[in-house]
Design goal:
The protein is α+β, with helices and mostly antiparallel strands. It has helices at residues 2-23, 54-57, 66-73, 94-102, 150-175, 196-212, 216-222, 226-231, 252-259, 266-275, 279-291, 323-339, 398-401, 404-417, 495-501, and strands at residues 27-32, 40-45, 78-80, 107-118, 128-140, 178-181, 189-192, 293-296, 353-363, 366-369, 394-395, 425-436, 438-439, 442-443, 461-470, 479-483, 505-509, 517-521, 525-529, 542-551. It is 30% helix and 22% strand.
């Protein structure tokens, strides 16, 4: 993998050399915007003419060149035909003028590299926004050379910037080393590996992006190794990226495409994805694609095991012996350990329900936790009892919130079962919920699984995962789905309501074994659960589930803090958005 990263670094340098030659420049370089950081990651210098400065600028921040950074972050190119061009903004550009003197720059051109992102909840009309990832630039240390290149500069620099940033994103996918901004932890930027599933799809998309670039035909002829990279020859065996190195699936048309430096077809990418699924995931994926829900067995969360030593098929092993089974068991122990500490829900749920809460952001195969905020329903009609009233659910302890099983569960749901339908940027709420027949040490035997009746969760995808079921009578605490036309707020234990909603019931499931689950498209169904009944009314009874709710981020203002409901709340000025 390191060899692949080195190859892409060399290709990036060669692309910058092409830009420098084409523009007649003394230097060509790229900077990335990563929060408040602005590292100069690559630089080309014309042989024997000027000194390089990448080493000095690898730790640059927005404060190093604040005027240039501000213009570029707003999507505005910066073109200086003389240092005197900075005089009208001399009060803002003192540091820039000093840097021009240090590097003996007479002229320069900087062009932002941006990507469009979606910024809206799925139930509303989506909006697009452009976010600047960084910039590509050229320096001239001899005056009066930039003017001759002005006409061609904008198109060449824009295309070259997109090409270089796509190459760098591809390098991060191949090596599994991507800079990720964290909200909760320090340092603010960490190097982490995106999920293999994301890598297997995003790499193919990036190769297509490279091919669609207007400079691709020229660069393919001039840059040695580019065709080799796109054939996937540098991708290690066992990393499901650009070719089916370990697969029995063979596509002759795709093989022909490889010889021409083309990325693999979508069918081959799908074949690789199939190798990343165990049998339960594959079946759930097919059901969710067709009927928009699936009942999940407990082994659905387990990674498929590696090919056996003979190279034929996957290693066979009982689910209980799977390496991740112990991880899930430990997570279950941590959840059960914290539910007693979770404060009761607000009225009218106080006497029989406890709820915990954590927020996460899934982005481009990464998952990290977000700051705690009070929960509320985005859609006020989703809960007929509380509408959009904020609810201070208990903050989950780090032992649960940051447990690696949370990452496993969310990535399996979003990537393997729901096929990445929600896109590369997803907001996720996780709630351990315990329904009980006791309060303040006294039994009352009045527990309601969903007192609000039939409802939705104001989200896109939901999973109800059983954690524990203690002293619950069989046939009770049954989760049900109803057709979308089912009215809100109907309770199945009331005969009149049951007569109305019974014919609309699509599916029912009684979750019995820890980590059994049901997942569904919240936009297609209403749902509820029948009330749990104690098998022995003289003893405590409880049912604990983990609710996972995922949606395209909602950008409307939150009544809690006036920030976007699902918005990232960084401490630094900006956040880099990766391709």
């Amino acid at each position: 993998m390191a060899d692949a990263g080195c190859l892409i670094d060399r290709l990036t340098h060669d692309v910058l050399a092409f830009v420098g030659d084409a523009m007649g420049a003394d230097r060509a370089y790229v900077f990335h915007f990563r929060g408040a950081d602005m590292p100069n990651t690559h630089e080309w210098v014309a042989s024997g003419t000027v000194a390089p400065f990448k080493d000095e600028l690898q730790t640059a921040t927005l404060a190093t060149l604040p005027y240039f950074a501000g213009e570029l972050l707003r999507g505005r190119p910066v073109v200086l035909e003389s240092p005197a061009d900075l005089e009208p903004v001399s009060d803002k550009a003192r540091l820039e003028r000093r840097e021009l003197d240090v590097e003996a720059i007479e002229q320069l051109a900087l062009f932002p590299v941006s990507v469009a992102v979606s910024l809206e909840f799925a139930s509303h009309e989506p909006r697009r926004a452009t976010v600047t990832q960084g910039f590509i630039g050229v320096d001239y240390c001899t005056p009066s050379r930039l003017q001759t290149k002005r006409d061609a500069m904008a198109s060449v620099m824009a295309a070259a910037g997109e090409f270089v940033f796509a190459l760098q994103s591809l390098a991060e996918l191949i090596t599994g080393q991507s800079p990720v901004q964290r909200e909760r932890s320090a340092p603010r930027w960490q190097v982490a590996a995106p999920s293999l599933f994301h890598r297997s799809t995003a790499a193919v998309a990036l190769c297509r992006l490279l091919q669609a670039n207007s400079l691709f035909p020229v660069l393919l002829a001039r840059v040695n190794g580019l065709a080799t990279l796109l054939r996937g020859a540098t991708v290690p065996r066992g990393v499901p990226m650009l070719r089916l190195a370990d697969s029995d699936h063979h596509d002759p048309a795709a093989a022909d495409a490889e010889t021409q430096g083309k990325p693999p077809s979508s069918s081959r990418s799908t074949a690789w994805q199939r190798l990343l699924l165990n049998d339960s995931q594959r079946q759930a994926r097919e059901l969710c694609a067709t009927q928009r829900y699936a009942v999940l067995p407990a082994d659905v969360w387990l990674e498929p095991l590696r090919p056996d030593t003979s190279g034929h098929g996957l290693e066979q092993r009982a689910a209980k012996d799977h390496p991740q089974a112990a991880l899930l068991d430990h997570f279950r122990f941590c959840v059960m350990d914290c539910v007693d500490q979770m404060k009761p829900d607000i009225a009218p749920y106080t006497t029989f329900r406890n709820v915990g809460y954590a927020r996460y952001r899934y982005r481009n195969g990464f998952l990290h936790s977000l700051k705690y905020k009070e929960f509320f329903q985005v859609d006020p009609t989703a809960n007929v009892l509380l509408s959009s009233k904020p609810r201070p659910f208990s903050r989950l302890p780090a032992s649960v919130r940051d447990h690696p099983a949370v990452k496993l569960i969310i990535q399996v749901l979003l990537e393997r079962i729901w096929s990445g339908e929600l896109g590369p940027d997803v907001h996720v709420n996780v709630h351990p919920v315990r329904v009980r027949n006791f309060h303040n040490g006294l039994l009352h035997n009045a527990a309601f699984a969903t007192l609000e009746g039939t409802h939705t969760d104001s989200t896109n995808r939901v999973a109800v995962i059983l954690i524990d079921r203690h002293n619950v009578c069989p046939g009770t605490a049954v989760t049900a789905l109803y057709r979308s036309e089912c009215p809100m707020g109907k309770r199945r234990n009331e005969a009149k309501d049951e007569a109305e909603i019974g014919p609309l019931r699509v599916a029912e499931v009684q979750l019995e074994t820890p980590f059994e689950a049901i997942t569904f498209d919240d936009t297609c169904f209403k749902h509820d659960a029948s009330d749990p009944v104690a098998a022995d009314p003289s003893r405590p009874m409880s049912r604990c589930v983990l609710l996972v709710m995922a949606r395209v981020p909602c950008s409307q203002a939150s009544p809690v803090d006036e920030r976007p409901v699902d918005g990232y709340t960084p401490r630094s000025a900006r956040e880099a958005v990766k391709l």
